[in-house]
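Dig into these lines:

——
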Amino acid sequence: MAHVLFDPIKLGPLTLPNRIVMSSMSRDRSFGGLPTALNAHYYAQRAGAGLVVVESTAVSARGVGWPNTPGIFSDAQVAGWRLVTDAVHSKGGRIFCQLWHCGRNSHVLTQPGGARPVGPSAVLPPGTIRTLDGRKPLEVPHELSVTEIGGIVDEYRAAAQNARRAGFDGIQVHAGNGFLLDQFLRDSANLRHDAYGGTPENRCRLLFEVVEAVCSVWDKDCVGVRMSLTNPTVYFLHDSDPATLVATALRGLGMLGIAYVDMVEGSTTADPATHELDYPTLRRLFPGLYVANNGFDGLAKAEAALASHADMISFGRLFIANPDLPARLRAGAALNPLNKDFIYSPDHRGYTDYPFLDGIVDP
């Protein structure tokens, strides 16, 4: 029986061999913010995905949320990412860089010069964040001025240029999971009364400006956006009218002409149905490709979403334990269990040591 999930699809200048996206997932193995040969090996193992999206990658030192996450704002980081992109390309894969700014989800112990993290408004977020001294409570962020917002847009543009130098095939702008762009989008974190706050259109302004900046460096057919506008995440963001916010964002991104949106449908921290919207209807507002994300645990659910409204399917944790996930799904083979004790270990354990379908372990 043929399955749409394994059909090729055009993504801008790329022809993807299947509709499987490896979701961006933080793995915390880029010590000092530098990707290494270990990271290159990990991503190359998973190059069978139609598209690999790398973990959240900071656009600046102020954009870093916690230790051992990668950046793309220095020459050394560009060189490290070149190891990764070369490794993935050597396996015939395609790889996008996810550009990230943590916003208020950081700590003075992580920020350069001990500065306060930044956000759209001086609102204390609940929860804690990892630092080199262990988990610490989040702090009231510094409210960004309009001038400072312009500087952050410039950081995204520079990071997009660095991603070209590093050999990536495209860019995914991270506007979800409770980080800076998501903080501007949702009215629980954005209490501004200027051009960047208030109405859904104003709250989308920074996202649109960042996308325009990235598209000044990359062809728009090579740019996507990740959103999670009904996901409370561990940082407890919410919006009073998520359906209108999603519609506003999708219409605006459609007018910008980008290649795709990657939509986290529902909540990743609770029953996804708790925060369900009519995604098949909302999806029609965006003329580009639509990547459905969240809770896909195998072939059946993926095929149902493709038949309903999606063009591609984003798989997350299944890719951690199954480097050859597309081959396993195609064969109907058993999946490796996830070793939760080593998701964030500092070495190859729980990273590159999962067996392939033929039993080979290649750590």
Notes: The chain has one domain: 13-317.
